[in-house]
Amino acid sequence: MWSLPSRTGRRADRRVAAGPGVLTQMGQANSASNKWSGVADAFSRVATETNNTFQYPAYGHVNGQSIFLSAWLDNQPVSITGVGTNAMQWRAMMELAPGTHQLKVSALHPSGFYTAWTTNSFTNNIAYQATADSYDSAGNITTRVWKSPNGTVDRTQTLSWDARGRLHKVSERDSSNSGYDWTATYDGLNRRLSTATVSITNGVTLNLQPSNINQYYDPQVEFLELGVSYGLQTVWKLYGPDLNGRYGGLNGTGGFDAVSPYLNFFNPLISDFRGNVLAEITNGIVSWIPARPTGYGAVPGYRPVALTYGADMAQSSAWRGHWVDITGYHQIGLRPYDSISGRWLTYDSVWNQRDPNYYSFAGGEPIIGFDSDGRILIQQWQQAQQNMLAQGGVLNNLGAAGISAGYAAMQLFSIGSFAKNDVLADQNLAGQISDSQFWANASLNSGVALASVAVTGGSASLAVQGGMAALRVPAAFVAGGATIGVGGQAAVDVLVNQQFSGWNAYEYSAISGGIGGATAYLTGGNVYAGGAAGGFARTVLVQSQQMADDQRASFNYWLAGGETALGASPGLFGMNGFYSSVEKQILTKMENETIQNIAATTGENIFANQLMTGLPDIGVDVWKEAFGSSSEQGQQTFDLSGSSFNNSAYSPGALGGKR
Amino acid sequence: MNTLKRIRFRPKWRTLLCLTAPLLSFVFIKQEWAARLVAVNGVSLALTYLVFNYGLNPRSRILGTGGYFSVHKVSERTKKRMEYFWRGVIIVFGVGWLFFCVRTLIYDDIQFVRQGSPYAEHIDGRVTNNDTLFAMYFVLQGLLVKEDGQQPGNSYTAFLFPRIAHLGKTYRFTVAPKSGIILDFTEIPSEK
Q1: A542 contacts in B (CB within 8 Å)?
Q2: Fewer Cβ close by (within 10 Å): the C or N end of chain B?
Q3: Which chain B residue has the Cα nearest residue A576?
Q4: How far apart are CA A126 and CA A148, in angstroms?
Q5: How far is CA A612 from the centre of its chain?
Q6: Reported ipTM
């Protein structure tokens, strides 16, 4: 069950009038139990939460040696941590509802033959826990404090974020100052590579045995995790097509078919329609997983257990095939997700209507959709791109390429600028720059990044939503521009590089030339604008590809500016005048009624000029003036390149113009 | 082919003069790196002036009469809006040019004035990519240069060089550190 916040709880400036809104309540319908609720602050962010099925720690000691601990609350497995192999202290995280409960903890002897266990029954009199969340200026959650109704602080979490907005540390402490410090490292593509957890007991850090989890990814799919290693074990994950029918299309959601925990072992998984893992088959025996997944996570009290803390890969991945950390959060692609409150922990810098408060998960509709990388907008772009490609046609392909270019530019500028913030942070920590210098420059970089995101997002949106406008650009303009681009690249290869640059270079030259041609058309034949747009598009495409291939360390603004200016330079050399003079002479004579028609050879020349410059508009004018209405067409026949063209084929319509 | 005979090339002389006048520094300044620094400064400032003049001057012709307007009826109001949009794009480009390029060049200029030639950075590296437009290498060469053992190449820009930095060859580059503009380069013969 979800409910909407009040009107005042929504961002008025976004005018969110419809849609699911911000999630503020979850639980069983018509029931007072098992209910989570949240209250939105002035920014529509959930800042205070109330939960009557809350997490609470339990402690104990193992009297002897053990290599593996398990814990169950009311016969449901819960996460448990332990340090050492002898007389270790364990800490289990229970999810408690008010009432009577039984906790059972077992310890496996190192020989593997003996298991000792103990049970403890108790009554939970705490009716609920209230959570207060604090945010930093970037919109990331920084602290979470859980309190009992009497005001006792039961648990705190301190979350730290790096300059790229990635969760790199979580420190959790309970009322006895026990807990853990969890840290994460990421690669340059923002994929989480490893986590390390250090237990803390009564304020003493037990850092001799940190628990490490390493993650391995498919090199061709951005966030598709292929393997995970922990302890002495590496578990490999086997995938088929995801829910959208493509391998890696949803980063493994729905396609997680089996795990291989050891060499030559292969355990198939049984999943449901939404990609929730229901059971694991081991040696022909089906083991049903006790977690009960829902759209946002799981039923309170039946949540998946953290990986390596009482659960294996399949058990921990019950919800949508994504395993849960000891922190209670799922790392889904780019962003951490809290399944209890059903939201992301980070601010989404790209607003969309389905994400009214910047933290909503899957647009508030996780049953019918899923956000597999934390960037639902990007998915929408990609979907639009696929649709355009599927529909085919030159202009649709160009539009799809435009989306790619917009996305590449967004990645380029935003990542580049945020990367500079990383450097600044390092310099600040090293004392090389002051705090004020750091904040001033970091703000500037972030501004550039966000502005580029806005601009490129807007451009891509225009490319998609303004498909009709794009279709009005005559193909001849695009083709003419592309011809110039390809010709220019060939000239570079022959004269400068003296070797073939590869098909990519020609592809980018053609695309950017096409963009230039379209720009020239939309500016009414402005060669400066067309050339500049083509030059700029080319440099962005080429440089972004080189950065993606790890060939280029950084974006060269001088090159971008220089190529843009150089692209505009044909206008300086009289290209405008060249066509204007032709057009002017012919049209003036027609206006003066000096001539009624033009010769076929003149038509040939103009058409050749059009192809050369990607500016067939003058030809449109010429024919319009020469032959008047369409009823008058067909009177002239032009002989071009040895072929006969009648006016229906050689008319403004054929050039892409409209009468 | 009568039409081609009637073609009149009408270059924008003032603009061309603005852009080519800085090349005179190669005549009056003996040291090539210094001459190039002056020339690049001149061209950059000229380009800045031209861009802002084009974007802000109400007399500059932003929209043509052909293209879209030859096949669609567009009201004057819409045309005006389109013109403002394109002017905005030009101004944004100009601001970006000032911030990302001219600013770094001015910083280098100041340092060169204060420290002289020792401020320049010398880099030995292999050219892995030479990016230019329409093969106009004598105006602009965008070079990717890899030093020994380096994976992603550093990007430098070579303006106004009559010679080509060939792919695969190793050169000693004299670079303005902040802007990454190559002021001079000489080939280092490969050891065989």
Answers
A1: 131
A2: C
A3: B10
A4: 7
A5: 40
A6: 0.89
Q: Give tens-digit pLDDT for B134-176.
A: 888 888 999 999 887 666 788 999 999 988 999 888 999 999 9
B110, part of any domain: yes
pTM for the model stands at 0.50
In angstroms, rounded to a whole number, what is the distance separating the alpha carbons of residues A270 and A256? 9
At A241, give phi and psi (nearest 5°): -65, 145
Say if the Cβ atoms of A617 and B180 lie within 8 Å. no
pLDDT tens-place string over residues A449-472: 666 555 555 554 445 444 434 445
Nearest by CB to residue B4, choosing from A523, A535, A605, is: A605
Q: Considering its fold, how many domains does chain B have in total?
A: 2
Task: Closest CB to B157: pick one of A494, A559, A652.
Answer: A559
Instruction: Look at residue B6 and tell me if it is in a domain.
Output: no
Please tell me whether residue A561 adopts helix, strand or coil conformation. helix
Structural domain boundaries, residue B30: 12-115
Q: Are B146 and B120 spatial neighbours (Cβ–Cβ below 8 Å)?
A: no
A494 chain-B contacts, CB cut-off 8 A: 135
Contacts of A577 in chain B (CB under 8 A): 8-11
Indicate yes or no: CB of B3 within 8 angstroms of CB of A602: yes
Here the CATH number for the domain that contains residue B167 is: 2.40.50
Closest CA to A277 of A257, A297, A261: A257
| Residue in B133, B154, B179, B183 to test binding to A, most A beta-carbons within 10 Å | B133
Q: Is residue B92 part of a domain?
A: yes
Which of B115, B134, B155 is a domain's end point? Answer: B115
CA-to-CA distance for A182 and A210, rounded, in angstroms? 9
Q: Which residue of B has its CA nearest to A562?
A: B140
Tens digit of pLDDT for each residue in A19-52? 456 888 888 766 666 688 898 887 778 889 999 8
User: Quick check: A260 pLDDT over 80?
Assistant: yes
